[in-house]
Amino acid sequence: MTETMNSAPHPSAAPRRAVVTGASAGIGRATALELARRGWHVYAVGRRSERLDELAAQTADEQAPGAVVPAPLDVTDAAAVEALAGRVAAEGGVDALVNIAGGARGTEHVAAGDTENWEWMYRANVLGTLTMCRAFLPMLRAHGRGSVLNLTSTAAIVAYEGGAGYNAAKMGQHGLTAALCLEEAEHDVRVIEVLPGMVHTEEFSLRRLGGDAAAADKVYAGVEKPLTAEDVAEVCVHALELPHHVNLDQIVMRPLAQAAQHKVIRR
Ligand code: 8X3
Q1: What InterPro entries does its record include (predicted)?
Q2: Active site includes 166?
Protein backbone atom coordinates (compact mmCIF):
# COMPACT_ATOMS: atom_id res chain seq x y z
CA MET A 1 0.00 0.00 0.00
CA THR A 2 1.21 3.45 -0.81
CA GLU A 3 2.06 6.15 1.72
CA THR A 4 -0.64 8.25 0.14
CA MET A 5 -3.37 5.74 0.95
CA ASN A 6 -2.17 5.28 4.51
CA SER A 7 -1.99 8.99 5.20
CA ALA A 8 -5.14 9.95 3.28
CA PRO A 9 -8.29 10.74 5.27
CA HIS A 10 -10.74 7.83 5.42
CA PRO A 11 -12.25 7.87 1.94
CA SER A 12 -15.82 7.49 3.17
CA ALA A 13 -15.55 10.82 5.00
CA ALA A 14 -15.34 12.46 1.56
CA PRO A 15 -17.62 11.66 -1.42
CA ARG A 16 -17.57 7.95 -2.02
CA ARG A 17 -15.39 6.84 -4.87
CA ALA A 18 -15.69 3.97 -7.33
CA VAL A 19 -13.97 2.52 -10.35
CA VAL A 20 -16.54 1.17 -12.81
CA THR A 21 -15.49 -0.91 -15.82
CA GLY A 22 -17.50 -1.41 -18.99
CA ALA A 23 -18.62 2.20 -18.66
CA SER A 24 -18.71 2.94 -22.40
CA ALA A 25 -22.17 1.41 -22.77
CA GLY A 26 -24.98 -0.63 -21.28
CA ILE A 27 -24.98 -1.70 -17.63
CA GLY A 28 -21.54 -0.23 -16.91
CA ARG A 29 -22.52 3.16 -18.27
CA ALA A 30 -25.84 3.14 -16.40
CA THR A 31 -24.12 2.15 -13.15
CA ALA A 32 -21.46 4.86 -13.47
CA LEU A 33 -24.17 7.43 -14.19
CA GLU A 34 -26.38 6.33 -11.29
CA LEU A 35 -23.44 6.43 -8.88
CA ALA A 36 -22.56 9.97 -10.02
CA ARG A 37 -26.22 11.00 -9.63
CA ARG A 38 -26.00 9.78 -6.05
CA GLY A 39 -22.87 11.77 -5.35
CA TRP A 40 -20.10 9.27 -6.03
CA HIS A 41 -16.85 10.24 -7.70
CA VAL A 42 -16.55 7.67 -10.48
CA TYR A 43 -13.57 6.61 -12.57
CA ALA A 44 -15.30 5.36 -15.71
CA VAL A 45 -13.25 2.65 -17.40
CA GLY A 46 -13.92 1.62 -21.00
CA ARG A 47 -12.20 1.21 -24.31
CA ARG A 48 -14.07 3.97 -26.17
CA SER A 49 -12.84 7.29 -24.86
CA GLU A 50 -15.34 9.40 -26.81
CA ARG A 51 -18.19 7.56 -25.10
CA LEU A 52 -16.63 8.09 -21.69
CA ASP A 53 -16.22 11.80 -22.48
CA GLU A 54 -19.86 11.95 -23.48
CA LEU A 55 -20.84 10.27 -20.17
CA ALA A 56 -18.74 12.75 -18.21
CA ALA A 57 -20.36 15.62 -20.13
CA GLN A 58 -23.86 14.27 -19.44
CA THR A 59 -23.07 14.03 -15.74
CA ALA A 60 -21.78 17.61 -15.71
CA ASP A 61 -24.79 18.87 -17.73
CA GLU A 62 -27.16 17.24 -15.26
CA GLN A 63 -25.23 18.92 -12.45
CA ALA A 64 -25.03 15.53 -10.79
CA PRO A 65 -23.71 15.81 -7.24
CA GLY A 66 -20.91 13.39 -8.11
CA ALA A 67 -18.61 13.27 -11.10
CA VAL A 68 -17.41 10.96 -13.84
CA VAL A 69 -13.72 10.90 -14.71
CA PRO A 70 -13.02 9.07 -18.00
CA ALA A 71 -10.35 6.36 -17.72
CA PRO A 72 -10.01 4.92 -21.23
CA LEU A 73 -8.32 1.52 -21.19
CA ASP A 74 -8.82 -2.16 -21.87
CA VAL A 75 -9.31 -4.13 -18.62
CA THR A 76 -7.11 -6.95 -19.93
CA ASP A 77 -4.17 -4.56 -20.41
CA ALA A 78 -2.36 -5.14 -17.10
CA ALA A 79 0.08 -2.24 -17.53
CA ALA A 80 -2.72 0.24 -18.21
CA VAL A 81 -4.75 -1.09 -15.27
CA GLU A 82 -1.74 -0.83 -12.92
CA ALA A 83 -1.14 2.75 -14.09
CA LEU A 84 -4.76 3.64 -13.35
CA ALA A 85 -4.54 2.02 -9.91
CA GLY A 86 -1.44 4.10 -9.15
CA ARG A 87 -3.22 7.27 -10.17
CA VAL A 88 -6.37 6.42 -8.19
CA ALA A 89 -4.33 5.55 -5.08
CA ALA A 90 -2.50 8.88 -5.34
CA GLU A 91 -5.84 10.68 -5.62
CA GLY A 92 -7.28 9.13 -2.47
CA GLY A 93 -8.19 5.51 -3.28
CA VAL A 94 -11.64 4.04 -3.79
CA ASP A 95 -14.50 2.61 -1.78
CA ALA A 96 -15.62 0.24 -4.53
CA LEU A 97 -14.38 -1.60 -7.59
CA VAL A 98 -17.28 -2.39 -9.91
CA ASN A 99 -16.41 -4.94 -12.60
CA ILE A 100 -19.05 -4.73 -15.31
CA ALA A 101 -16.87 -5.16 -18.42
CA GLY A 102 -17.44 -8.43 -20.25
CA GLY A 103 -19.81 -9.87 -22.78
CA ALA A 104 -20.63 -12.70 -25.14
CA ARG A 105 -19.37 -13.66 -28.58
CA GLY A 106 -21.18 -16.29 -30.63
CA THR A 107 -23.81 -18.93 -29.96
CA GLU A 108 -22.09 -21.99 -31.41
CA HIS A 109 -22.67 -25.38 -29.87
CA VAL A 110 -19.59 -27.07 -28.41
CA ALA A 111 -19.40 -29.28 -31.50
CA ALA A 112 -18.63 -26.16 -33.54
CA GLY A 113 -17.01 -24.06 -30.80
CA ASP A 114 -15.05 -21.11 -32.15
CA THR A 115 -11.75 -20.90 -30.24
CA GLU A 116 -11.35 -17.20 -30.97
CA ASN A 117 -14.76 -16.38 -29.50
CA TRP A 118 -14.08 -18.53 -26.45
CA GLU A 119 -10.70 -16.91 -25.86
CA TRP A 120 -12.21 -13.44 -26.19
CA MET A 121 -14.91 -14.29 -23.64
CA TYR A 122 -12.45 -15.80 -21.16
CA ARG A 123 -10.19 -12.78 -21.45
CA ALA A 124 -12.93 -10.17 -21.19
CA ASN A 125 -14.97 -11.77 -18.39
CA VAL A 126 -12.45 -13.69 -16.31
CA LEU A 127 -9.00 -12.22 -16.92
CA GLY A 128 -10.34 -8.65 -17.02
CA THR A 129 -11.87 -9.18 -13.58
CA LEU A 130 -8.65 -10.75 -12.33
CA THR A 131 -6.53 -7.87 -13.64
CA MET A 132 -8.74 -5.22 -12.05
CA CYS A 133 -9.03 -7.04 -8.71
CA ARG A 134 -5.29 -7.66 -8.46
CA ALA A 135 -4.52 -3.99 -9.06
CA PHE A 136 -7.17 -2.52 -6.75
CA LEU A 137 -7.28 -4.99 -3.84
CA PRO A 138 -4.34 -3.43 -1.98
CA MET A 139 -6.13 -0.08 -1.69
CA LEU A 140 -9.48 -1.72 -0.95
CA ARG A 141 -7.89 -3.70 1.88
CA ALA A 142 -6.21 -0.57 3.24
CA HIS A 143 -9.55 1.24 3.12
CA GLY A 144 -11.05 -1.06 5.76
CA ARG A 145 -14.57 -0.88 4.29
CA GLY A 146 -14.01 -1.55 0.62
CA SER A 147 -16.27 -3.42 -1.78
CA VAL A 148 -15.86 -5.34 -5.02
CA LEU A 149 -18.93 -5.88 -7.18
CA ASN A 150 -18.64 -8.38 -10.02
CA LEU A 151 -21.37 -8.53 -12.62
CA THR A 152 -21.69 -12.10 -13.85
CA SER A 153 -24.92 -13.53 -15.28
CA THR A 154 -27.56 -16.18 -14.81
CA ALA A 155 -25.42 -17.92 -17.46
CA ALA A 156 -22.98 -18.45 -14.58
CA ILE A 157 -25.44 -20.81 -12.87
CA VAL A 158 -27.54 -22.33 -15.68
CA ALA A 159 -26.17 -23.68 -18.95
CA TYR A 160 -28.16 -23.60 -22.17
CA GLU A 161 -27.72 -24.83 -25.74
CA GLY A 162 -25.62 -22.37 -27.68
CA GLY A 163 -24.40 -20.79 -24.47
CA ALA A 164 -21.37 -22.98 -23.78
CA GLY A 165 -18.61 -20.45 -24.42
CA TYR A 166 -20.41 -17.73 -22.49
CA ASN A 167 -21.47 -20.23 -19.78
CA ALA A 168 -17.84 -21.30 -19.39
CA ALA A 169 -16.61 -17.72 -19.12
CA LYS A 170 -19.34 -16.57 -16.74
CA MET A 171 -19.02 -19.72 -14.61
CA GLY A 172 -15.30 -18.98 -14.48
CA GLN A 173 -15.93 -15.41 -13.35
CA HIS A 174 -18.50 -16.74 -10.84
CA GLY A 175 -15.87 -19.15 -9.43
CA LEU A 176 -13.32 -16.36 -9.19
CA THR A 177 -15.88 -14.24 -7.33
CA ALA A 178 -16.75 -17.00 -4.85
CA ALA A 179 -13.08 -17.59 -4.02
CA LEU A 180 -12.47 -13.85 -3.76
CA CYS A 181 -15.32 -13.54 -1.27
CA LEU A 182 -13.67 -16.15 0.98
CA GLU A 183 -10.19 -14.70 0.58
CA GLU A 184 -11.11 -11.09 1.26
CA ALA A 185 -13.51 -11.46 4.21
CA GLU A 186 -10.68 -11.22 6.71
CA HIS A 187 -9.42 -8.11 4.92
CA ASP A 188 -12.85 -6.48 5.35
CA VAL A 189 -13.42 -6.30 1.63
CA ARG A 190 -17.06 -7.04 0.82
CA VAL A 191 -17.55 -9.05 -2.37
CA ILE A 192 -20.90 -8.74 -4.14
CA GLU A 193 -21.98 -10.72 -7.20
CA VAL A 194 -24.88 -9.58 -9.38
CA LEU A 195 -26.24 -12.22 -11.78
CA PRO A 196 -28.72 -10.75 -14.26
CA GLY A 197 -30.80 -12.72 -16.72
CA MET A 198 -32.27 -11.14 -19.84
CA VAL A 199 -31.25 -7.49 -20.06
CA HIS A 200 -32.07 -5.54 -23.22
CA THR A 201 -29.11 -3.27 -23.88
CA GLU A 202 -28.12 -1.69 -27.17
CA GLU A 203 -25.06 -3.91 -27.63
CA PHE A 204 -25.14 -7.24 -25.72
CA SER A 205 -27.01 -9.41 -28.25
CA LEU A 206 -25.85 -7.39 -31.25
CA ARG A 207 -22.23 -8.12 -30.38
CA ARG A 208 -22.94 -11.71 -29.45
CA LEU A 209 -24.62 -12.25 -32.83
CA GLY A 210 -21.88 -10.60 -34.87
CA GLY A 211 -23.77 -7.37 -35.59
CA ASP A 212 -26.92 -9.06 -36.97
CA ALA A 213 -29.57 -6.55 -35.82
CA ALA A 214 -32.56 -8.70 -36.89
CA ALA A 215 -31.25 -11.71 -34.95
CA ALA A 216 -30.51 -9.49 -31.93
CA ASP A 217 -34.06 -8.09 -31.97
CA LYS A 218 -35.44 -11.63 -32.03
CA VAL A 219 -33.85 -12.37 -28.64
CA TYR A 220 -36.27 -9.90 -27.03
CA ALA A 221 -39.23 -10.41 -29.42
CA GLY A 222 -42.54 -10.38 -27.60
CA VAL A 223 -40.96 -10.03 -24.16
CA GLU A 224 -42.99 -7.29 -22.59
CA LYS A 225 -40.37 -5.95 -20.26
CA PRO A 226 -36.87 -7.37 -20.35
CA LEU A 227 -34.60 -5.84 -17.71
CA THR A 228 -32.94 -2.58 -18.70
CA ALA A 229 -29.39 -1.44 -17.96
CA GLU A 230 -30.95 1.04 -15.53
CA ASP A 231 -32.74 -1.76 -13.63
CA VAL A 232 -29.45 -3.56 -13.10
CA ALA A 233 -27.62 -0.34 -12.24
CA GLU A 234 -30.18 0.43 -9.55
CA VAL A 235 -29.61 -2.96 -7.93
CA CYS A 236 -25.81 -2.62 -8.11
CA VAL A 237 -25.88 0.82 -6.52
CA HIS A 238 -28.32 -0.32 -3.84
CA ALA A 239 -26.03 -3.22 -2.90
CA LEU A 240 -23.01 -0.89 -2.77
CA GLU A 241 -24.79 1.71 -0.65
CA LEU A 242 -26.00 -0.71 2.01
CA PRO A 243 -24.07 -0.54 5.29
CA HIS A 244 -20.77 -2.31 4.79
CA HIS A 245 -21.56 -5.22 7.11
CA VAL A 246 -24.59 -6.12 4.95
CA ASN A 247 -23.50 -8.25 2.04
CA LEU A 248 -25.94 -9.11 -0.73
CA ASP A 249 -23.35 -11.62 -1.78
CA GLN A 250 -25.25 -13.13 -4.72
CA ILE A 251 -28.09 -11.26 -6.35
CA VAL A 252 -29.92 -13.19 -9.08
CA MET A 253 -32.24 -10.89 -11.00
CA ARG A 254 -34.44 -11.69 -13.97
CA PRO A 255 -37.33 -9.97 -15.69
CA LEU A 256 -40.69 -11.31 -14.55
CA ALA A 257 -41.18 -12.64 -18.09
CA GLN A 258 -38.11 -14.88 -17.76
CA ALA A 259 -39.16 -17.43 -15.16
CA ALA A 260 -36.09 -19.48 -16.04
CA GLN A 261 -33.46 -19.52 -18.76
CA HIS A 262 -35.67 -21.89 -20.78
CA LYS A 263 -39.02 -20.29 -19.94
CA VAL A 264 -39.54 -16.86 -21.41
CA ILE A 265 -43.06 -15.45 -21.73
CA ARG A 266 -43.50 -13.87 -25.18
CA ARG A 267 -46.79 -12.27 -26.07
C1 8X3 B 1 -26.96 -12.57 -20.24
C2 8X3 B 1 -28.00 -13.52 -19.81
O3 8X3 B 1 -29.65 -15.26 -20.64
O4 8X3 B 1 -28.20 -14.28 -22.32
O5 8X3 B 1 -25.92 -12.45 -19.33
O6 8X3 B 1 -27.30 -15.83 -20.74
S7 8X3 B 1 -28.28 -14.75 -20.93
Answers
A1: NAD(P)-bd_dom_sf (IPR036291), SDR_fam (IPR002347)
A2: yes
